[in-house]
Structure formats: structure tokens, C-alpha cells
Amino acid sequence: MTHPLNAATRFVARWPQSIGLLLVCAVFSASTGGCNSSGSDGIVLGHYASMTGSEATFGQSTNNGIQLAIDEINQAGGVNGKKVRVITYDDKGDAREAGTAVTRLVTRDKVVAVLGEVASGLSLVGAPVCQENGVPMVSPSSTNPTVTKVGDKIFRVCFIDPFQGFVCAKFARENERVKASKAGILYDQQAPYAVGLQEEFAKAFKKLGGEIVSTQTYQAGDPDFSAQLTAIRASNPDVIFIPGYYTDVGNIAIQVRKLGIKVPLLGGDGWDSDKLGKIGGEAINGSFYSNHYSHEDPDPRVQSFIKKYKERFGDTPDGLAALGYDAARIVCEAIGKAGSLKGDDIAAQLAKTKDFNGVTGKISIDADRNAVKPAVMLEMKGGQPTYVSTIAP
Ligand code: PHE
Questions:
Q1: Which of 62, 269, 290, 370 to mutate to test the pocket of ligand 1 (most atoms within 8 A of CB)?
Q2: Taking CA 155 as the corner, what is the angle to CA 154 and CA 156, rounded to the nearest 5 degrees?
Q3: Residue ID of nearest Cα to ligand 1 atom 6
Q4: What is the model's pLDDT at position 36?
Q5: Which of 56, 77, 151, 253 has the smallest number of CB atoms closer than 10 Å to its CB?
Q6: Is the pTM of this model over 0.70?
């Protein structure tokens, strides 16, 4: 007979066809006092993610990447002979839901480590819960520097925003197609990611001799950006930096072009979704963003990952899928080396991660539990992100 949890995990792996089935595990956990995370049953990891909502592709792609990694690890015999399972909860991109999800993972499901979140604002909610409970958390993709400062159990496998802001500023100043001396900024004032990244961009842009001519704000989900964009237009910038998430950015791009603004738009990794081109349409083409990975990277490791991912999920992995894949593998490697399921032991091994060959580059965890890695610049062309350049740290 199939163990009910294994069945639940398989359904989760086939997301999004089985939306309601996440509940299966939640209900199961509730009725038995939690999934056994350390018995002969296997090793249980937790994942909290925006599987629905305006950032849904963040969670879905990350979850796909994680599932692919875990299946490969299990096919190769598991971790120290134990099979690995992941319980994923949908936080809907909402802070309160994220807190509930992480609390449930660490106190009830008793997971040995937590993967997530993508959005820095949500990682900042989950991280204190993990830290207090001594459960290591690895964010695949939160770039705000404060996330890992929460404590010694909190890690990430991506670069951070002081670097990303610099990368964008340098690109804006130096790229032949942009060569900006004046930049406008439009950012979500409630997202820690956007607040931090626009600060870093402005700092670097000024340092490189540029001028910020207008800084405007919005709130996620706003339908109308015309007041802010009219002010930005009046300041006559050469580029507009929009460090937001893809749904808002797509909508903003449409309104930018409607107002007759022709300059390129520039953003960070928050643009990374196949939905960006679908929402923004023609308006987003010719704009640029920084990211963790390009599907055009000829590295055989990257191409083999893309092939496996396409076979399984039917589409080309985005950066989040790649980061989810790397994060899951790094966590499993650390558990394997720890030879124990204790949070302290796993965290100690995570901290030692060095030159891990990821699909998002070589990953070494530094003293602040961050990864130091190059970034890529991508251009939206025909609705697709296309590779422009790589910037080393
Ligand atoms: N870096 C973003 C944040 O911190 C999340 C993100 C990463 C989004 C990669 C898309 C791709 O909120």
C-alpha cells in the first residue's frame, strides 16, 4: 500500500494540476501530530512558497526545481540511505500565510530544514520562526541583505542586493543601448526587496557619475501608475529603474508606453517569470533585467538541467526553478555530510558549502551565510528573456 504521505508528496510534485491536494498533507499532519521527519520513514524538508497569487510563478517554478532535485537524489539512493520528501505549503504571497506555513512546518511537521521563500519580505517573516526553533532555512532567491542577518540558521544560495543594485547601475551607465546619465526610479514602497534594491541602485548609479532625477513609489497591485509616470516623464530620464515583481512590472510597462515614454526600463530578478512577457506584451520588449541564470548558458550542466526540466514540466525553467534546484541539492548535501538531522549539525555543514557546482553557478557560502556569485543581464525580446552579459562579483 502507498503511504499516504508519499502519495501527497507525489501530488505536490505534479503541481499545479493538483492544487487542493496540498491540503492532503496538511490534514494528514494535523490528524497524526505531524509527519515523522527522522524515522525510517525518511527525511522531511519543508517548503513555503507563493503557489497562487500575483507572484504564483515564483512558488511554482521553485517547487518544480526542488521536486526535480529531490527525485534525482532519491533515485540515486537518497541521503545516507534515507529517502527525502518535501512538504510544500502555499503562502499565497501573503505575509500572514507565510508565518502560519513556516510555524506549521517546524512545529507540527517537524521538518529538518526549510526551503523558501522567494520574496525577501516573506523570508523575513519565516526566518525568525526557523531561527527560534533551531531549524535551518535556506532561501533559494531572497536577495535583501537583512534576510540572513536574522540569525545563524538562515542561509541563501543567491547573491544579495548591494551587488545586484551595482550590476544594474553599471549596466545602465555603460551599456551601449542605455548609456544613461539620468535615471528615474519607480518602486513598491512596501516590499523590502524593492526598497533595498532601489537604494543600492541609486547609490551605485550616483557613484558611477549618474544622477537620479525622480523617485516615485507604488503599492503592489495598484492599477494606475499615471501620476508617478507623468512625474518621471517630466524629469526626462534616460532609463527608468523598476525593481518590482513581474505582475506589477508588466502593468507598469504598458502604462509607460501609453504615456509615450520611449526610454528602456530596467529591473532586477523580480522580473523573472514567463508571465512578464505575457502581461507586458510589446511594451516590455527592449527592456533589461538582472538575474541569477540564463537558459542560454551553454554550460553542459545547465543544458542538461533544462532538458530534464522540460521533459518533466513541459517548459523552459526560469531562474527560480534553477535556484530551487540548487537550494534543494545544497540542503541535501549538508544533511548527508552532517550525518545527523539536528538543526545545529545541518547548519554547520551548510555554512561550509564551498564551490558547489550549481546550475546557477559555483556556490560558496560566505561568513554572512550568503552566496557570492555572478549575475547575468537579460533583455526582453519577443516576450522572452535573452542573454546580454555576465557580471562577476
Ligand atoms: N530577489 C527577489 C526578492 O528578494 C526574489 C526573486 C528572486 C524573484 C529571483 C525572482 C527571481 O524578493
A1: 269
A2: 140
A3: 270
A4: 42
A5: 77
A6: yes
